[in-house]
Design a protein that fits this description.
Chain lengths: 325, 325
């Protein structure tokens, strides 16, 4: 059982790899558990801290056909395609976003198509495929109407993955991720970076800026549940998906004010006071175009689960990621 | 005022060119009427029968950058992008469909982006972007859920045109065409080819095969109204479109049985009896995934108009296209 993770040196990629190493096996096409013999992490740089013989690290440009040919082979059973240019950066550098979020996804699908045993491809999409005038709760069949280049590129890759799956070229699964909170590490160029920063930085004794109004509503999922969903998305048989390979994952719907209130309940007034409110119209425009909640009944019926509440998400971050005091 | 028509030697391209030559002018960005000095027809072959100095014919492959660079210039005010691989052919030859319906559209948008004065790009999309479980009447915001490679490629081009327009790289307008009936000429590889054939062939004294059940419902527009809609789509100011450049054009909703009944009313029992019913599951699967009606209130508010009824469409074909007896 060989697994490929693009964006494998990123936060989700590394965490997924560690979970798979720990779990040790995955079901094959016939549902039989098979030991994982190799996990290839593909990224622009190598991840540090892996000393497991099952881990292979390949660095390079995933828009290069030769690299894809090397890492995805007829022995590959699963491709977790996580590599992406994040929303803020894809808006600032249109061509880079097109190259990585669209061209690389298509090349990857083409490489999978050329393999005798087509792998399962688990692709992470985003709330950003929605936008414009939205219902209070977005449904699985709400129209794609992205208001950013990132959302456009993700929506296009969703369509490709569905058509490639319908044609039998790959066995694809598209998981639309809620905004992930709390991401560990440093802020990134995602428009939603603050949704982790306003919890993470205060817990690490640092000030944090919130660029959107307190009543802006977000749809959130914790890193723990993202990893569990990726693995569950691989495990489901193709037939379970019916006519659409795209699933809106369950999240929790909270306002930014709710998030800071939860931080105060879990970590105290002094910590929550480290959040500063400085409005940024460019970020607010992107974030406000995303849905604050969606109907996740299809995902739930398929066995995906979300978080219990934001207080739990804050505690999970403290357990998993906060450096020991 | 210079105009480019891709697929310019096709039936719609030629008819559009003749209408523009007759009309003689189009409004520029500021709304001032300008004489049309050049119409470039781009296609794989030249169209016959044009002897007007304003017509330039360029033959070649529109996925070639050099060709696009030659035909689209900073002097180009309008690009009618009609070139496409039709539904049946795109399903049979996936790679050809991707190359013409997706890659060529993207290259064309990139070429327009590189021009100092970005042209208006009028792109024809299709009912085929919809599919799966549909409401009785499809709305403007019904989810894209194509069940064919053609529909997938059109949906992707729609998304690109919207994002390129939002970024100011082009001034795009996406017109979702109902199924066109009655097309003149020969059957083609579109899954919907029969929707013209069952009227055209009997009127020309030939037998015709209907591959779908009599109760299959179609959403139809006549060639006359398509041409008027393309020109109107160019004429509207960008601001009229708001947050989406995509418009569902008005059609009429009729069953295949209704169409044959109209043929009988207009041309007689003997003519209508030339339709033979031979079910083709592959065509029925594609056609039945398309909506039989959609809400056209946005298009109507924007000034687009459809046909009065199918009897009129049959008569219009007889007037415009039927060889004199």
């Amino acid at each position: 059982m060989q697994v490929v993770i693009t964006g494998g040196a990123g936060f989700l990629g590394q965490r997924l790899a560690r979970s798979l190493l720990k779990q040790g096996s995955l079901p094959d096409r016939s549902g039989q558990l098979q030991a994982i013999s190799k996990i290839t992490l593909v990224d622009v740089a190598a991840a540090a801290g892996f000393d497991d013989a099952r881990i292979e690290q390949v660095t390079g440009d995933i828009t290069e056909h030769a690299l894809l040919e090397r890492v995805i082979t007829p022995q590959t059973a699963a491709v977790f395609h996580l590599a992406a240019i994040v929303s803020g950066q894809a808006e600032a550098d249109f061509d880079l976003g097109m190259r990585i979020n669209l061209d690389a996804s298509r090349l990857l699908l083409e490489r999978c198509r050329s393999c005798a045993n087509v792998p399962r491809v688990i692709f992470t999409s985003s709330v950003a495929v929605f936008g414009g005038v939205l219902p209070a709760v977005v449904q699985d069949d709400t129209a794609l109407n992205p208001q950013s280049s990132y959302g456009t590129q993700k929506a296009i890759a969703e369509l490709l993955l569905n058509d490639y799956s319908r044609k039998g070229f790959v066995d694809g699964r598209v998981l639309r991720l809620p905004t992930i909170s709390v991401r560990p590490g440093k802020p990134n160029q995602a428009a939603s970076s603050f949704a982790s920063g306003i919890i993470r930085e205060p817990l690490n004794g640092q000030p944090a800026v919130c660029p959107v109004a307190p009543d802006v509503r977000l749809w959130l999922l914790s890193p723990r549940k993202v990893i569990a969903s990726l693995i569950h998305g691989y495990t489901l048989p193709a037939e379970a998906f019916g006519k659409s390979r795209t699933v809106n994952l369950p999240g929790i719907s909270v306002t930014v004010a709710d998030m800071v209130a939860a931080l105060e309940r879990v970590a105290g007034k002094q910590v929550a006071a480290r959040v500063e409110w400085v409005h940024d119209p460019a970020i607010d425009r992107i974030i406000s175009s995303w849905p604050g909640a969606w109907d996740a009944s299809r995902a739930t019926a398929l066995g995906f689960t979300g978080d219990a509440g934001f207080d739990d998400i804050v505690r999970a971050y403290m357990e998993d990621d906060l450096p020991a005091a």
